[in-house]
Amino acid sequence: MILDLIASRNYAAKNDLGESEVRAMPMVLRIERTSPPSRTALLEAAAASAVAVCLDPRADVGGEWHEAVRAWVAGRIRKVSRRARGVQWDAVQELPGVTITVDGASVRSLLPVLVSETPREVAKLQISGSDLPVDEPGPVPAGARLLYVNPRVEMSAGKLAAQVGHASMLLAPRLSEDELKEWASLDYRCAVRTPSVAEWDSLIHRGDVVAVRDAGFTEVEPGTTTVLAV
């Protein structure tokens, strides 16, 4: 059910929902002041945690998360990234969601809620200030799903966290049941990479890629292709 809804969604679409009716998935990025994570690892954790919420057994029909996830996917898809550290990070662990850690970088994607009902522990967290310096990632881990970031578009780490989360979600319905089980056994491992412009232009025309086109609420123009999932 959830995968079918995801497969039918147009992520760039804007609809007529009023702001009070919009649901969002809060994504909390752990960025400690003294020991910040690497940008790539944080993005990979974000991609994995977002899809993990959607594919969690609790999101299945009859599960305690099903209605919240179903209502979110059926409406305007939105994710909001916020940064947390110390006791702030500890506090959000008590909220419904999934935390994924990759190479020391942790992200907790929370159960989608009405924007107007964002939990107090989340609402007080900063949206800005979540950027991190570009790093050089190592080899792609075995079994990881590749997510390619548009090399022509500058985006903050917070913005990209939401975009790669969209990509992992859009990719899931394209996989077979066996592939999904294998991916789940790897905690939905993703590898986020930035190709050259020439590589990007070649990838975007392939038939086996999933494209995320942003609605343009922040940082980029509406309809911008931000991430490709292979």
TrEMBL record:
Keywords: Hydrolase. InterPro entries: Pep_tRNA_hydro_II_dom_sf, PTH2. Pfam families: PTH2. It is an enzyme of class 3 (hydrolase). It comes from the Bacteria. Its EC number is 3.1.1.29. GO terms for molecular function: hydrolase activity. Gene3D superfamilies: Bit1. This is peptidyl-tRNA hydrolase. It comes from Lentzea indica.
